[in-house]
Write a structure and sequence with these properties.
This protein is mainly alpha-helical. The chain has one domain (5-85): Non-ribosomal Peptide Synthetase Peptidyl Carrier Protein, Chain A. The chain has three helices and no strands. It has helices at residues 5-17, 37-51, 72-85. Helix 1 (5-17) packs antiparallel against helix 2 (37-51) and helix 1 (5-17) packs across helix 3. The longest helix is centred in the middle third of the chain and has 15 residues, at 37-51. The chain is globular and about 30 Å long. It starts with a helix and ends with a helix. This is Acyl carrier protein. Residues 3-83 form the Carrier domain. Pfam families: PP-binding.
């Protein structure tokens, strides 16, 4: 999988939402894209695998997670930070 971090994250999220990647904007929320809690967990796993990182996200307590999932753009920035910290 080539492309920028943003492109890869958008592809992963689009796949989970069964949308065309062009329908996923940086200001989109996962909820607005129709991604439920299972889709969120699957997206996190796919992101971890695609970038060989460990995302600090607890699916059982998402509100207490240090990984912000408020929008696609915030997720992209967090993934970029995790990659830089590797």
């Amino acid at each position: 999988m080539s492309g920028t971090v943003a492109e890869k994250v958008i592809l992963i999220i689009a796949e989970q939402a069964v949308l065309d990647p062009s329908d996923v904007r940086m200001d989109s929320t996962l909820e607005s894209l129709g991604i439920d809690s299972l889709g969120l967990v699957e997206s996190i796993f796919a992101i971890e695998e695609a970038f060989d990182i460990s995302v600090p996200f607890n699916a059982n307590e998402p509100d207490k997670s240090s990984f912000d999932i408020s929008s696609v753009g915030v997720i992209v920035a967090a993934v970029e930070g995790l990659i830089a910290a590797k």
